[in-house]
């Protein structure tokens, strides 16, 4: 009888030990959870690095992977090399059929007002007849540049051209501007070769410009081009993505945006 009781006691201890080890392993896996997010350096990677400790306190290690182009971050999410990316707006995501079929916006964070800059002219009215203007060569941002120029009365676009307008949609060009289409990341460096360039907010900030003070013309804060966090379809409610959302859409991040970027980045929350 005593031997039987002792055997049962030992068995119970072993079961407890196994269950405890499994529980500890589960906690270890949770605390070792890694969330990899691709981002362009400014302001996206800066905002992500700001919240690393907030996610770490929840057992999530945020790995920020920086990119300097607008194509590879989407390719990396589709391939599974990244869990999410943070650099683009919905018109850009929708400009590629594969991206729009496989990826989705999890949430929006901010707007980076798009502006026209020049190292040769101090005022937009000073652009000479036949001036060369560089614009992004991707459909959504190229259209965004043309729409900005149209909103200031500098060109006229074909009615219905929409967000993906191209230079072929220009129906009125009183000053005979000549347009050069370049990769968005190269636009700041093009300023020495052109009269003006329409530059995305993140690349303008990275090049040391203050969009509010240094641009000749700029979008208002009502711009529809909200920068979003993108994931594979079906992953929008993943717990790690929800934690990322709560951390990015926080007062801490909003205060940082307002103090850091001086109007060059505008929070939408």
Folded structure, characterized:
The chain is an alpha/beta fold and 269 residues long. It has twelve helices and 13 strands. The protein has helices spanning 2-31, 41-50, 52-56, 72-79, 90-93, 97-102, 139-151, 187-190, 201-206, 211-214, 239-248, 251-260; strands spanning 33-39, 60-66, 84-89, 103-111, 115-117, 132-136, 156-157, 170-172, 178-182, 196-199, 217-218, 226-232, 266-267.
Topology:
Elements: H1 2-31, E1 33-39, H2 41-50, H3 52-56, E2 60-66, H4 72-79, E3 84-89, H5 90-93, H6 97-102, E4 103-111, E5 115-117, E6 132-136, H7 139-151, E7 156-157, E8 170-172, E9 178-182, H8 187-190, E10 196-199, H9 201-206, H10 211-214, E11 217-218, E12 226-232, H11 239-248, H12 251-260, E13 266-267
Parallel strand pairs: 1-2, 1-3, 6-9, 6-10
Antiparallel strand pairs: 3-12, 4-12, 4-13, 5-10, 5-11, 7-8
Give the gist of this structure.
This protein has 269 residues and is an alpha/beta fold.
Q: Radius of gyration over alpha carbons?
A: 25 Å
The largest beta-sheet arranges its strands as: 2-1-3-12-4-13
Number of domains: 2
* CATH class value of the largest domain: Alpha Beta
Which of globular, elongated, flat, extended, rod-shaped describes the shape?
Answer: globular
What is the H/E string? Answer: HEHHEHEHHEEEHEEEHEHHEEHHE
**Which regions contain 5 or more consecutive residues with pLDDT less than 50?**
1-31
Distance between the termini: 70 Å
From the structure above, extract its key features.
41% helix; six-stranded mixed sheet; 269 residues; 23% strand; D-Maltodextrin-Binding Protein, domain 2; 2 domains; disordered N terminus; alpha/beta
């Amino acid at each position: 009888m005593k031997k039987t009781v002792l055997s049962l006691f030992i068995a119970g201890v072993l079961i407890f030990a196994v269950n405890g080890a499994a529980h500890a392993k589960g906690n270890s896996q949770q605390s070792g959870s890694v969330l990899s997010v691709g981002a362009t350096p400014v302001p996206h990677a800066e905002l992500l690095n700001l919240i690393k400790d907030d996610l770490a306190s929840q057992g999530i290690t945020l790995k920020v992977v920086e990119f300097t182009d607008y194509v590879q971050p989407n390719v990396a999410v589709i391939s599974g090399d990244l869990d999410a990316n943070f650099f683009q707006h919905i018109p850009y995501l929708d400009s590629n059929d594969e991206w729009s079929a496989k990826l989705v916006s999890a949430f929006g964070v901010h707007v980076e007002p798009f502006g026209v800059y020049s190292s040769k002219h101090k005022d937009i009215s000073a652009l000479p007849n036949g001036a060369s203007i560089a614009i992004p060569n991707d459909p959504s941002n190229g259209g965004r540049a043309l729409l900005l120029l149209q909103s200031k009365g500098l060109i006229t676009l074909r009615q219905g051209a929409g967000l993906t307008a191209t230079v072929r949609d220009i129906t009125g060009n009183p000053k005979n501007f000549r347009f050069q289409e370049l990769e968005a990341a190269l636009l700041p460096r093009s300023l020495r070769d052109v009269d003006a360039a329409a530059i995305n907010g993140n690349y303008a900030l990275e090049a040391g410009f203050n969009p509010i003070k240094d641009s000749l013309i700029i979008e208002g804060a009502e711009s529809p081009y909200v920068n979003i966090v993108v994931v594979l379809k079906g992953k929008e409610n993943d717990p790690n993505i929800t934690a990322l959302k709560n951390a990015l859409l926080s007062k801490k991040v909003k205060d940082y945006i307002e103090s850091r970027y001086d109007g060059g980045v505008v929070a939408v929350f």
